[in-house]
Every structure is written in C-alpha cells, then in structure tokens.
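Inverse folding, one chain.
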C-alpha cells in the first residue's frame, strides 16, 4: 500500500494505491474518487484496520493521565455512540481492493492540509475532535474520556486514541504545524488549533495569563500547556464557530 497527499496545503486530497485485499478505513462521505476494483462496506462505530475485535475492560491509565476505555466488539452500537462522542460519525467506511493496482482518493470536509501520523507499538497519538480522516495498517482507534479539561478547552469530553502499527491521517483547517518537544519542554497552544499530540505528551488547562483579567480581556481565556517528550501538531486556522449554542454542544460532546 502506498499513499500520497495531493494539492496541499489548502485543498488537500489523500490518494491510496492498493494491492488486492488491502483496505483503508475512513470517515463516511470522504471518498472523492475510486477505481472500479474497489468495494465499499459500512460498519457501525470505530473499525480497527487490522480487523480485530476486542471486548475487554482496561483499567489502565495512559501516560497523559487519561483513563483507558471500554473496548467493544467491532461494529457494536456502543462503539458507534462512542465515535459520535469523539466528534466523529456513527459509521465508518471500509474501502477494499478486489484486485491489484486500485486507487482510492479521499477529500476532507475542511479547507486545509492532511497529515499522516506514523504509529508504532510504543508510540501512539491523541486526536482532537473532528481531526480524524482515515487509518491503515494494524491500527486501533479508540475513544477515551478527556475529563473536565476537555470540556473547558472546547475540544470535548472525549479524545480519540490511535495506537498500533500503521498510519492514522488527520484533516486540518489551514496548514499544519509540527513541534517536537524534548523532555519537560513546554508549548502553549490555543485550544481551537490543536490537531494531535503524542500519547507521551501531557497537557494541562491553564489561564493564558497570570492575571484573570488579562486572560479574559485579551480574548485568549484558557489555553492548553503541553509538556514533552513527544510531537505536537496544530493547525494555522480555527474552524468558524456556529454560535454559542453550537460551541456549547461541541464542547459537551
């Protein structure tokens, strides 16, 4: 399987070249074009691209301090509900090659770039609400509870946690910026712009300024402080708000 990002950084598309039996898992309604030898199937909830089903409860906690999630079988309704809580669709789409030399092109909803994150068994990523586009390889994408700081940061109560071996692809609004943080190195990012960060990175919701008045009057309010080691990806534009009600609903879920 090969992939490439075309038309970056504003009108990006993601093109896959697939051999027989290879497949891509993606957000529904993201396909732009595909060749005749591609079959499409829909699944409820988050679909791991290695096809494994898990139904175990993990009480462990990640290095970012986020509690582990209930793992449900592939295609369960509970998995679909969790996907919606993470800001994604109830369904996922699987594009599978029935023969060699097949192509699929995906296009995100937003005007911006597409970034490919490399996953290793010891190197996963947290994705913020609405960032997920697709995943390949032996990857696992789970929904995890982000706590009150997720709600207050307007990124929602839930985050997506991508682990395994392969690639997960994020869609951005605007261009993508990347910072590699060393151990104990910190970076402050306005919450609207965060896309993804390594699961070795910790984060904390803080005031933009030591003074509450300055934080509020500057328009910055609360921001996230990310501490390394690990990688941080953020976008150069924030999606336009749909108003106060939309903001509250998005933050709650």
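Residues assigned per position:
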């Amino acid at each position: 399987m090969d992939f490439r990002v075309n038309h970056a950084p504003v009108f990006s598309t993601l093109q896959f070249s697939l051999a027989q039996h290879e497949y891509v898992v993606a957000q529904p309604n993201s396909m732009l074009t595909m060749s005749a030898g591609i079959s499409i199937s829909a699944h409820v909830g988050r679909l791991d691209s290695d096809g494994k089903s898990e139904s175990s409860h993990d009480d462990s906690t990640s290095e970012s301090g986020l509690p582990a999630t209930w793992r449900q079988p592939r295609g369960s309704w509970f998995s679909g509900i969790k996907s919606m809580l993470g800001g994604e669709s109830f369904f996922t789409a699987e594009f599978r090659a029935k023969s060699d030399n097949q192509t699929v092109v995906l296009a995100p909803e937003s005007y911006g770039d597409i970034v490919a994150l490399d996953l290793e068994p010891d190197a996963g990523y947290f994705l913020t609400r609405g960032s997920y586009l697709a995943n390949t390889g032996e990857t696992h994408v789970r929904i995890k509870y982000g706590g009150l700081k997720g709600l207050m940061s307007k990124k929602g109560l839930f985050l997506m946690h991508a682990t395994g071996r392969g690639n997960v692809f994020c869609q951005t609004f605007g261009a993508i910026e990347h910072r590699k943080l060393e151990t104990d190195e910190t970076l402050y990012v306005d919450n609207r712009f965060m896309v993804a960060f390594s699961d070795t990175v910790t984060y904390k919701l803080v005031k933009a300024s030591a003074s509450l008045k300055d934080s509020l009057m500057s328009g910055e309010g609360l921001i996230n402080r990310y501490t390394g080691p690990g990688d941080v990806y953020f976008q150069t534009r924030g999606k336009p708000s749909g108003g106060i009600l939309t903001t509250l609903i998005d933050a709650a879920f």
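The two ends are 34 Å apart (CA to CA). Helices lie at 77-85, 148-152, 212-217, 244-252.
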